[in-house]
Amino acid sequence: MNDFFSLQLDAASGIAQLELNRPDRLNTMAPAFFPALRDAVRDLQDEGQARVLVISSTGKHFSAGMALDVFGADDAMLDTRSARARLSFQESLRRLMACFDVLDEARFPVICAVQGGCIGGGLDLACASDIRLCSADAFFTLQEIHLGMAADLGVLQRLPRIVPPGVAREMAYTGERLGADRALAVGLVNAVLPDAAALRARARELAQAIAAKSPLAIAGSKLALNHARDHGTAAALQQMTLLQSAIFDVEEMGRAIAAWKDKRPADFPPLAPIARLP
């Protein structure tokens, strides 16, 4: 348990639910949020029971991003007054970025359900997820440009791979809000739901559909999709030959085919836990 979100895993379905729970502070992020998120996702990853993760929020807005008082703090992490300080700043920033990388690297898909504002760091988080859904009142904005800084937690690298590059640049340069309808039109979200209740229901429905599939095939599909996104076709095809040879499982396929023929849910074992270093 922490001050930023709650996390629950339904062992029967394999659906994990992470809910931002600081609505009185617009679900803003303080430095402690990032390692808490990283460790929570890594724990799910290591345990092997989670088949899909749904990230949602409470209150009017999904997240207003980094709390503004962080930027005014006398924090050594923000010190760039000397060459040595800047070198340390670079490493601190990369470690901060890595706290969202875990969503991209997880063996299970991540669904981000956005209601209200998805601002600054909130958009970094959403872009690191596999699938985004939103409510009709949602909007997305790169707030950092209004603060005199470039967004630096991954959104400038991930957003142009999700939406047309011109849209990503417009958002980065102007900080203007992208409403729910346009977010759907440009491919930032997969669906727009009427309200928060409908959003949660759709996210749950989608999570159930994913969790019902072979977790081995889902993990392999995510690995292949991520590699293809970041590499050329020839390299991605070569990676697929190696990946498929590692995860091809006739017994797993037999379970899936038998369940499909019988029109019943398949019973797939969870992924194996990942051994932790002492």
How would you summarize what this structure contains?
The chain is an alpha/beta fold and 278 residues long. It contains 10 helices and 9 strands. It has helices at 33-47, 83-105, 121-127, 155-158, 165-174, 180-185, 196-211, 215-230, 233-247, 250-262; strands at 5-10, 15-20, 52-57, 110-114, 117-119, 131-135, 139-141, 178-179, 191-193.
Describe this structure in words.
By secondary structure, this protein is α/β, with parallel strands linked by helices. It folds into 2 domains: 5-211, 2-enoyl-CoA Hydratase, Chain A, domain 1 (Alpha-Beta Complex), CATH 3.90.226.10; 215-262. It is built from 10 helices and 9 strands. The strands form 2 sheets. It has a 6-stranded mixed sheet with strand order 1-2-3-4-6-9, with helices on both faces. Helix 1 links the parallel strand 2 (15-20) and strand 3. The radius of gyration is 20 Å and the shape is globular.
Please supply descriptive tags for the structure shown above.
6-stranded mixed beta sheet; 2 domains; 2-enoyl-CoA Hydratase, Chain A, domain 1; 278 residues; 9 strands; alpha/beta; single chain; 3-stranded mixed beta sheet
Helix content: 40-55%
CATH class of the largest domain: Alpha Beta
Strand content: 5-15%
Which runs of at least 5 residues are low in confidence (pLDDT < 50)? none
Looking at the structure, the CATH topology of the largest domain is 2-enoyl-CoA Hydratase, Chain A, domain 1
State the distance separating the first and last CA atoms.
23 Å
Please give the CATH architecture of the largest domain: Alpha-Beta Complex
Domains (count):
2
Helix and strand succession?
EEHEHEEHEEHHEHEHHHH
Number of helices: 10
Radius of gyration: 20 Å
What's the average pLDDT? 95
> Largest beta sheet: what is the strand line-up?
1-2-3-4-6-9
Q: Biggest β-sheet, characterized?
A: 6 strands, mixed
What class would the helix/strand composition place it in? Answer: alpha/beta
The total beta strand count reads 9
CATH superfamily of the largest domain: 2-enoyl-CoA Hydratase, Chain A, domain 1
What's the overall geometry? Answer: globular
